[in-house]
Please model this.
Amino acid sequence: MNFIEGGITAPQGFKAAGVAAGIRKKEKKDVAIVYSQVPAQAAAVYTINKFKAAPLKVTAEHLADGIAQAMVINSGIANACMGQQGMESAKEMAEITAQVLNIKVDDVVVASTGLIGAPLPMDRLEQGIKEAASKLSTKGGSCAAEAIMTTDLVKKEVAVQLELGEKQITIGAMAKGSGMIHPNMATMLGFITTDADVSAECLQKSLKTAVETSFNMISVDGDTSTNDMVVIMANGIAGNPQITLDNEYYVQFQAALTEICVILAKMIAQDGEGATKLIEVEVSGALSLEDARKAARTICSSSLVKSAIFGEDANWGRIITALGYSGAEVEPEKVDVYIGDLMMAENGTGLSFDEDKAGQILAQKEVIIKVDLKLGEFEAKAWGCDLSYDYVRINADYRT
Amino acid sequence: MNFIEGGITAPQGFKAAGVAAGIRKKEKKDVAIVYSQVPAQAAAVYTINKFKAAPLKVTAEHLADGIAQAMVINSGIANACMGQQGMESAKEMAEITAQVLNIKVDDVVVASTGLIGAPLPMDRLEQGIKEAASKLSTKGGSCAAEAIMTTDLVKKEVAVQLELGEKQITIGAMAKGSGMIHPNMATMLGFITTDADVSAECLQKSLKTAVETSFNMISVDGDTSTNDMVVIMANGIAGNPQITLDNEYYVQFQAALTEICVILAKMIAQDGEGATKLIEVEVSGALSLEDARKAARTICSSSLVKSAIFGEDANWGRIITALGYSGAEVEPEKVDVYIGDLMMAENGTGLSFDEDKAGQILAQKEVIIKVDLKLGEFEAKAWGCDLSYDYVRINADYRT
Model:
C-alpha cells in the first residue's frame, strides 16, 4: 500500500470541484461536487442522532439501490430541523445536480454541514452547483476538500494505491470535522472514492468496519451531530477482479480503507476546535472490544483530562476517574496507567514519577495515554484533542 | 417549611468546627468535624465510579449498622488510588476522631476531597482533627462548610424548619462541589443533619429519593468522581413521633429533604468552575421519568450548549442535537424548544424569533431551557452552568 498525492480525484474516473457560492461567507468555497464518469457502487454510514438532517434522509433513499454517480455537498448551513422545507431543499439540491450533470436524480448523494435550523439559500446554491459542475476536473479534489470545511483549519484529504490481482487500484478520500465531534459519527463528513470493483455487500461491510475503528473513535467535545455521514463510491474502472466478502482481496481492501479512515479521523481530532495537541488513548487488556472502546473514548472525551493535557499537567487521577465511569468492566486494583512511556499508576495505585520527564512528554504535540486493564485480550485506540481557551471562544459565538 | 439561617449546626444536638491544618494550602480551612451529642441514625449514597476512594469504603463499613455520631472531612487530598496506604489512612482518620471525641470508631463517617493519587499528610491531619475537636460549637457549621471547599468560590449551606406532630424539627446541610460534577454523584460531598427521629429504612429511602432529583441532576463537566457521597445523620432530639415509611410525616420530611438537596445542587451548578450563568433545563412530555432525566442531563452537559450560553448565542440547534443523542425516546417532528419563554422550534422545526428578546433572556444570570417532547406525562429538571475561558484556566493547572 503506497500513499500518493491527492484525495477524491486520485482514483480513475472521478472529477470534482469546489466553488464559493456565498452560503457561508464571501470568498470561502462552500459547494462541492464529486462526479464519477460511470455509475458507481455506493454505501454510506449515518449519524446515530435521532434528529437526522434532511440531506441524510434523501441520501438514504437515493442509495437504496446501492448506486450513485455524484455527490453534492454544501457547507455553511446544515439544513437540519427545517421540517418539510428542509426535505424539499435537499431534494432540490439533488435535482439541480442531476440536471446539470445529466444523470439520474436518485444517483445523487446530498450532504450539508453548518448551522442547524436555518434555510438553505436555494438561488445561491443553484448558482454554486452550476458553477461547480462547469469546473469539474480530475485535479479538483483539493478544491472540493476546501469547500466542505466549516471551522476546520486544515484541509483533510488522503489517497493510497495498492495492487489487487495484478491491477492497481486507488482509494481517495476527503473529510471535514472540527467541533461537535464525538464517537458514533459527530459533525463530520467523509467522502471516499475508489476505482476498484467491489461488490455491494463487501462495500457496505468494509465501510462500516473502517468507520467503527476510525471516525467512531474520535471525540472533540462529546456532541454527536445531526448531519454526519461517510459515503463511499466504487466505480470499478481499475478493472480488478471484483472484491467480495469471500475472496482474498477483501482483507487487503479492508486494511487500506481502514487506514485511510484512521488517518482522516486523526486529522479531524488534531484539528479539533481550539486544539493544541492530539491525544491518543490506547486501552489494552479489556474483557471485550466494546469495553476497550468505551474506556478509550470516555478517557478521550473527559473535559478534565483534556484540560489537564492542555495545561501539560500529569494529573493521571483524572484518567482513572474517567475510566471508572466509562461503563467498562474494570478491577481498580489491577489497572496500570501511562502517559507516554512513563508509568503513573500501577495496580490502581499512584507511583512517584519523574515530573520533569512527564513535563517533556506533555510538551509534545501528540500525547499518548496508555491504560492496561489486565483483565482480557481486547484493545482499542481513540483520538481526541485538548480543551483550550480557543474552544470556548469559537463556540461562544458560532452563529455570529 | 421555613428557611432559617445556618447549616449543619442548626438542628439541635449538633456541633461542628472547621480548621486549617495545612493540607490544601496555608490559611485555607481544610479539616471539618460534625458531631452529634448522641449516636444518630445515619444513611449515605455513594459515587457510581468504579474507583471508589478509600474513605467511601471505610464509611460504608462504619454505616453497616446504620448508626453514626461524627463525620470527619478533609479537603485538599482525595485519598483515592492510594492502595493499601489509602485504606490505612482513612481508618486512621476515623480512629483519631473517635479517640479525641471519645466515641466508637465505627460511628465515624470519613470523607476526603481533592487531588487523586497523593498521600494524606497524617501528622498534619491529626493535628487538624484534634484542633477541630477542641473547637466544636453549635455555631461551627459555617466554618465546617468552609473547610470542605476546594475550587468552590461560594460556601454552600442551608437549613429549614418544619412542624411534625406538633414538634418542630430542623434539617441543616452543607455541600461542596465545583468541578468534576456530573449526574450520579460527581466530586461533590453533601452532609445533612437533622434532629428529627426518622426510622432507618425511611432515612435511607428519603435520602436516595432526594439525591436522585437534586445532586444527580447537575452537571458541570460530565466527570463523575471517585470520592462523592451524601450522608445524613438524624439524632432524634426533636422528640417528634418517629417518621416512618408508612406514616403521614414521611411526605413532609421527604419534601423538605428534597428541597434542601435541590437548593444545594443548584448552588453547586451555579458555582461550577468558571461558570458565569446557571442553566436550568426542563424537559416535559417524556414517555418515562428516566427519559426525561436523560434528556435534561444530556442537554445540560453538552459542551456546545454550554459554550453557546456563555456566548449568549441562541443556538437552539445544539439543544436539539444534544436531545437527539441523549438516548431518550424522541419523535423529532413533535419537539418544541424554548429559551426562557421564547419559542425557538415547534414540532422539530426552527421558527423565526426575536433576536433582541433572545439576547435579553440570555443576558440573565439564570437561563432556562425548556423542551417539550409531547409524547407522555413525565418531566425532569437538570442544572448546569456555562462553559467559559475560566473553566479551562482552572483545570489546565489544577495540580500546580
